[in-house]
Design a protein that fits this description.
single chain, alpha/beta, Immunoglobulin-like, eight-stranded parallel β-barrel, four-stranded antiparallel beta sheet, binds alpha-D-glucopyranose, O16G_dom_2, Alpha-amylase family protein, GH, Glyco_hydro_b, amylosucrase activity
Length: about 650
């Protein structure tokens, strides 16, 4: 878009660029900057327009983009051009992800290189390596308290090792995802150290207060993220004799984005990693980016402006690189992190579908799909050029992130229903085999979240202890059912490492002082590769789950209707235990009807229920399930579901 004022400022800035920048070949950079500048300028103006040094800061911003563009390799620039052309490339059903710790799944980055064959064996082609940047050893929050953004933690490897992985993955068409912790740094980061020593420039990088006046105002309304281990949102720093804002752990200092220098530093860091060959940057804790007295300091409009700015800038330098929003917030808020408009106010192309995840866990506990249907019915539409990361488990705790209104619509009383879920998963409810752990219990409001691996939460740990073969088999079916949902829903399915071989809770964290008070470590296991080897032995749990996922991935990749083009329609069935949706294909291809039984007993679906949706099932006597390639089980015009059975049925 052309607008006079911003354009004249752009001309001024280009004029002032240093000769060593100007003399480079910057064709594509200039065209993209021209296209994005009006937006970029307006957003920067909204946040920082009142500052005297506004133009100087804008010049610095452009310089950072230009320098990083110059440093971008010809190979990556080629990928950028290809992805600009095929701009919906990431919506294809061909992508299937896995999240892992380099030192949990493997020994380190070097060893991870040797696991690429395993990814291909399973079929995953998007690998999210959990944070690997330098962190203080005993105060790292699992990698989310970074002390150096340009250095890889020596415990997992070095830049060279990462570059080798990025290269090897690229050769096999596997995408690399890395975390950038944009909201806060470790209190041992150089910026924090300098602030502590009194350097004005770096004091401005954080929220630092002389006394409790402002912190008290903030704390009136700020929730506690870690109420047990880090209550409150400010930490007293002995050296400075001042209070620092620390919304997460007391060693994680919140960055002050009211200062444009912080934004520019972080952009430089994002582009630095983009230039190391990272395809997708996972932006951590984005809901928290802007702080305001008198609210929760989450989902503030300015946080969205910051993300739009990051996106605009990244598109100028490295347009092939995508963002994942890690915003684990209310359903109506999450979708806003895609942006309001894919062209004018775009933010992150991908976001965690925390709503679907939490709803799936509700269906696990209740054995019905009532709240699941209700929650999905109310899941707001997303932009066209945007996609979900659908997951069952990740490295974090499970929050019951659905709304009280939906709980009521589903026929429950919110408080008691939430209590039931916490009791169910923590094993307190009498009728449960789940082995979860309560995390972040808050005595002020009785709130809590849940830790534990998929396998242990489903009940397989208990079933194995009881040596109860029937329960073991049911648990495995249950695990597979959940995967069948995230693989078919629309978006990129994200497997959590270890789930593909049924990894149980790991209680060894309790013996480690720096982990003992954070039970999320129960579900951050070290993979036992001897056990993983059993995936090749039929009859083992590892083999059953691994081969089911392997098959599911293979079939998913062949079904065009599984591409994510906002082509899902929820189907309302009268049987509360069944969850159903239709994935609509583009012209000349079959749609896919996805059905799952969340109950532990047999369920039936009368096909007239489906007929009323005007679907013509191909051949009523021979309905083929795409996953198993076998005829579905029919009994007198009813589709039969064994406990936790799912179907992917082709319909035209
Ligand atoms: C994100 C991470 C979580 C971490 C938090 C603070 O939510 O996923 O693990 O504790 O940010 O960095």
């Amino acid at each position: 878009m052309y607008e006079q004022l911003s354009h004249s400022i752009l001309n001024e800035i280009l004029e002032r660029l240093k000769p060593e920048i100007k003399e480079q070949e910057l064709n594509h950079f200039y065209t993209r900057l021209g296209a994005n500048f009006y937006s970029l300028f307006s957003l920067f103006l909204k946040l920082y327009g009142k500052r005297k040094d506004f133009k100087e800061q804008l010049l610095k911003l452009v310089e950072v983009m230009a320098r990083q563009y110059i440093g971008r390799s010809p190979e990556l620039k080629k990928t950028d051009l290809a992805r600009e052309k095929d701009y919906n490339w990431f919506l294809s059903q061909k992508w299937v992800g896995m999240t892992l710790y380099a030192d949990g799944f493997a020994e380190n980055l070097l060893d991870l290189l040797s696991k690429i064959d395993y990814f291909q064996e399973l079929g995953v082609n998007l690998i999210h390596i959990m944070p690997i940047l330098e962190c203080p050893k005993n105060a790292s929050d699992g990698g989310y308290a970074v002390s150096n953004y340009r250095q890889i933690d020596a415990r997992v490897g070095d830049l060279e090792a990462l570059k080798n992985i990025a290269q090897a993955m690229k050769q096999r068409d596997i995408l690399l995802v890395l975390d950038i912790v944009v909201n806060h740094t470790s209190n041992q980061h150089e910026w924090a150290e300098k602030a502590r020593q009194g350097e004005h420039k770096y004091k401005e990088y954080y929220y630092i207060f002389q006394d409790r006046e402002i912190p008290d105002m903030f704390e009136k309304t700020l929730p506690d993220v870690f109420p047990q281990t880090a209550p409150g949102n400010f930490t007293w720093d002995e050296t400075m004799q001042k209070w620092v804002m620390t919304v997460f752990n007391n060693y994680q200092w919140d960055l002050n984005y009211q200062n444009p220098a912080v934004f520019i530093e972080m952009l430089d860091i994002l582009l630095f990693w983009a230039n190391q060959g990272v395809d997708i940057l996972r932006l951590d804790a984005v809901a928290f980016l802007w702080k305001k007295i008198g609210g929760s300091s989450q989902n503030e409009p300015e946080a969205h402006i910051l993300l739009q700015l990051f996106k605009d800038c990244c598109q100028v330098t490295a347009p092939g690189v995508l963002f994942i929003a890690e915003a684990i917030v209310a359903p109506v808020e999450i979708v806003k992190y895609f942006g309001e408009d894919a062209i004018n106010a775009k933010e992150c192309e991908i976001a965690y579908n925390a709503t679907f995840m939490a709803l799936l866990w509700d269906a696990v506990a209740t054995k019905n799909a009532k709240l699941l249907k209700q929650g999905i019915k109310n899941l707001p539409d997303k932009l066209e050029r945007a996609t979900w990361l659908n997951y069952i488990r990740c490295h974090d705790d499970i929050g019951l992130g659905f709304t009280d209104e939906d709980i009521m619509e589903a026929g429950y009383e919110p408080k008691s229903h939430r209590n039931f879920l916490l009791n169910y998963f923590s094993g307190k409810y009498e009728n449960t085999a789940a082995r979860g752990l309560l995390f972040g219990q808050n005595p002020k409001n009785n709130d809590a979240r849940i830790s534990g691996t998929l396998t242990s939460l489903i009940g397989l740990e208990t079933a194995l202890e009881e040596k109860n073969q029937e329960k073991i088999e049911l648990s495995i079916k249950h695990i597979i059912l959940l995967h069948s949902m995230i693989f078919a829903f629309g978006g990129i399915p994200l497997i959590y490492y270890g789930d593909e071989i049924g990894t149980l809770n790991d209680y060894s964290y309790m013996g480690n002082l720096s982990k003992a008070n954070d039970n999320r470590w129960a579900h951050r296991p070290k993979i036992d590769w001897k056990k993983a080897q059993l995936r090749k032995t039929p009859g083992t749990i590892e083999h059953t789950i691994f081969s089911a996922l392997q098959r599911m991935i293979k079939v998913r990749k062949e079904i065009a209707a599984f591409g994510d083009f906002n082509n899902r329609e929820l189907i309302n069935l009268s049987n509360p235990h069944l969850f159903a949706f239709l994935r609509i294909a583009q012209e000349n291809q079959d749609h896919v009807l996805v059905l799952g039984n969340f109950d532990a007993s047999y369920q039936y679906l009368n096909l007239t229920d489906i007929d009323s949706k005007m679907l013509r099932l191909n051949d009523r006597d021979n309905i083929i399930d795409l996953y198993s390639s076998q005829a579905s089980v029919m009994f007198k015009n009813q589709l039969v579901f064994s406990p936790f059975r799912f179907y992917w049925i082709s319909v035209s």
